[in-house]
Specification:
Layout: H1 3-27, H2 46-53, H3 55-58, H4 62-82, H5 92-99
Length: 104
């Protein structure tokens, strides 16, 4: 999948979200305004996004939150685009150590 295809796919999911997203966010107990990341396939990783809902992150300055989200998105996009179809190596152990979160 090219970067342009991933962006187009993500945008199509964002456009379709509207009220379903609001209901899902309420069920997920996300604080309005909390940042979150989606995979290029528009998948939501509970463990990864739990980092953004952590009290330390929620109470951090907006620029800090945005910086973490931007840097993580860039890193995870790099991994996604750099992997080959045969790759079974998970990014989660390294991410767990970096963020200090429980990743399954």
């Amino acid at each position: 999948m090219t970067t342009e295809e991933a962006r187009a796919l993500l945008w199509s999911h964002i456009v379709a979200w509207d009220k379903k997203a609001e209901a899902w966010l309420a069920r997920a107990e996300l604080v309005p305004g909390t940042l979150f990341l989606l995979s290029p396939l528009a998948e939501y990783d509970v463990d990864l996004n739990g980092f953004f809902a952590d009290a330390r992150m929620v109470t951090s300055a907006w620029r800090t939150q945005h910086g973490y989200a931007r840097d993580l998105a860039a890193f995870l996009t790099f991994l996604w685009l750099s992997r080959d179809d045969r790759s079974t190596v998970s990014y989660k152990p390294s991410l767990q150590r970096f963020l200090g979160i429980g990743v399954h």
